[in-house]
Amino acid sequence: MIAFSPAFINPALVSKITVQKKEKKMLKIIVLYPQPSDTAKFEKDYEAHLRLLHEKTGIPINVKPYKITKMLPTPAGLPQFYKMFSMPFSSLEELQATMSTQAMQDVAKDAQRISTGGLPVTMVGDED
Fold this sequence. Notes:
- By secondary structure, the protein is of the alpha+beta class.
- It has a domain at 27-54 and 79-128: 2-Layer Sandwich (Alpha-Beta Plaits).
- The protein contains 4 helices and 4 strands.
- It has helices at residues 11-19, 39-57, 92-99, 102-114; strands at residues 26-34, 67-70, 81-89, 121-127.
- The protein has a 4-stranded antiparallel β-sheet with strand order 2-3-1-4.
- Helix 2 (39-57) runs antiparallel to helix 4.
- The protein is globular and about 40 Å long.
- Residues 1-22 have low confidence and may be disordered.
């Protein structure tokens, strides 16, 4: 089980990446969901998962500080991942503080529950 905690993100590594350019960076948490075993059920569960995210974080339901990308098939077939969730954070400290809360632990546990095609892959990105 992936648990979000301050240890989840290596500050030295993120600092090294961030220092490479002088302008301020925007960090993102990215969650990739593998192809589900039942897409209709996943879509229903994912809507409930987003409601849980809003409920646990206090983000109003009409405010979407995140982006969701649904992957499309190519001539080569289905991509490895079905959906990508990304949400920006202004600093490593904000990201760590948010992800270490019990509310986000609950959201992370629910992400694993709904991901019937395998565990979701969680990454941190540094946006140019």
